[in-house]
Amino acid sequence: MDASEQIDQRIRDLDDWRGARLADLRALIHEADPEVEETWKWKGTPVWEHHGIVCTGESYKLVVKLTFAKGAHLQDPAGLFNSSLEGNLRRAIDIREDEQFDEQAFKALFLEAVAYNRDNPPKSKRL
To answer: For residue 38, what is the domain's CATH number?
Structure first.
């Protein structure tokens, strides 16, 4: 299976609100950035990439978590980040069942992360 098929399977396997929410978030990601690439890393984590990793989508018993790899560098004017706030690099959004979610702010945040990746490519290692 390719990465997109593995994400499809994950959504089917989460046969409760978490699968539905992950599917909705995935659709928002593709609406925001039709060129986003889906990958599957770390033995079971959906990842969305454009100019590098933008975010991962994890599911836990009580939350669906979107972790932005370089979230600490993003503005987040709507205050979507509510988890992993103490780190120097990543930030996350924990979404609980029946929680309201600002879809437009999320798409804007996702695009900001893509722009950050584009404008700040990783420094190559010198041999």
So the answer is: 3.90.1150.200
